[in-house]
Design goal:
Layout lengths: L4 H12 L9 H8 L1 H4 L4 H16 L1 H12 L12 H19 L4 H14 L13 H25 L8 H23 L2 H4 L1 E6 L7 H19 L20 E3 L5 E4 L15 E3 L6 H13 L7 E5 L5 H8 L4 E6 L2 H13 L6 E5 L10 H7 L9 E5 L22 H18 L5 E6 L8 H9 L10 E3 L20 E3 L14 E8 L2
Parallel strand pairs: 5-6, 5-8, 6-7, 8-9
Antiparallel strand pairs: 1-3, 1-4, 2-3, 9-12, 10-12, 11-12
Length: 517
Amino acid sequence: RTSNPRSLAVLALMKTSPINNSNNNKAAVLLESNPDYRSLLDERDKSFARMLVSTSQRRLGQIDKVLSHCCDSNYPPTRKKKDKYGIMVQATLRIGVAQILFMDTPAFAAVKETVEVLKRLESSSGGDRYRVPLAMIKFANAILRKVDREGHDILLHHTCLTDNISPWLVRDWKHAWGEEKTMQIVKQLFDEDAYDHIDLTLNLPNGLSESERNVEEAKLLMEFDDDDDDDGGGIENGDLNENTKEGSIVLLPNGSLRIKRRGNVSTWPLYQEGKWWVQDVSSTLPAVALCKALQQRHDDLSSLHVVDMCAAPGGKTAQLLSAGFGCVTAVEGNAKRSRRLIENLKRLQLQDGCQVIVSKGQEWVPLTRKEEKENGKGMKSVISGILVDVPCSATGTGSRRPDVLCKDGDIEHLIKIQEELANHCADNIIGPGGVMVYATCSLLKAESEDQVRKLISRGDELKGHASMQTIPFTSGEILGFDNAIDESGWLRVLPGTLGGDLNSCDGFFVARLLKVK
């Protein structure tokens, strides 16, 4: 067994990092599923292990460039994928450089304690015990000492942030958004301070007036402020909109609460009571867009049936339920993810108003009135609105998931699924006058703007294709996001471009469409 955070981080990276490649997010999953990690008593040790893994993945391109300079021709330590010692040394060097160059770990401790990992690393989860040859231990020690002496200069003059991103992705962004905006995006994705927070959506009763909502927000904010007093942060002078930089609590323009990371979220105030859920501020936009469009067309939302397609983990479903719709159907193709969705809704005490269906989105259709009567269902067969947050490359979430920035450019299978989902929802689920919101957390136009243009242009009643037209977003409709409205009337959120606290948010795309016929 091992209770050493560095050892646990190395093991996680080893099992997911072939030579010269650490391009997936399984390292964090493996780390957190390791019994040795779960048995750590000190939350700070868990946090340190997570930070080692995430920083090593986030800065992998720069880390390997620095190591290549310091190792001359001897990096990676081996090019044989089955050489467990070489893979271990590489993983160890990576977490060592992460500490020296990108974390606040004192250089002496970073070198000494990281080299110690090679001397005594043991895995209780797989039953493996590694005894690294002395020559390789000395090699790692020498390289990390050289990184301590020369690494910062190499980092400054021989690397750049885009080294951590697949070249095809950078080329795509430059073509789509231009050089200046691309560099704003990249800078924001690698802003360590921006990564150090979590956004929460508040679970407030439906129908509150603005003043009542302000009171409820203040109560919840004070709960976090009281919990944060020992850290010296929080809200100063009781002003909810001040101290956004120095404090650890920020109320965002849309009503989301931004909290500085500290320990496991399940231990935060009012988590068990279901008073909030984790949801990036950008991820709230699709449900808000659907709600506002339907509010403009209907006096009473409680008479409407809406659908959340690809619903897990349930943040958008919870938003729709909180808005007061009469019936919300959540469709999720993955059974395991649907169970997580149900668990989340139960914690929020919102499960009663929702029907969760496990089905591929491309295949699901609502019951007819006759079928509802025969099956004793209380659903309304007419679907007034549907939220389609399609599976995508998730490149907009790169600040939290560095793996998505390192994928290859093969996204054709995703493009196909997105097109099938969008066409099916428009043709077969909503009727004329129904509203469809198409959304992605992608920074690629091919998955976002291009898909909506194809959906609009394919309208052909003779072929049974829905005729769709844009319901444009208007200035002031969604607080804080006016600058994200593009020339087509869609929302295009690019990290690092909105300014203020919203400068730090996931990349997102939202288009709102009306089915004409």
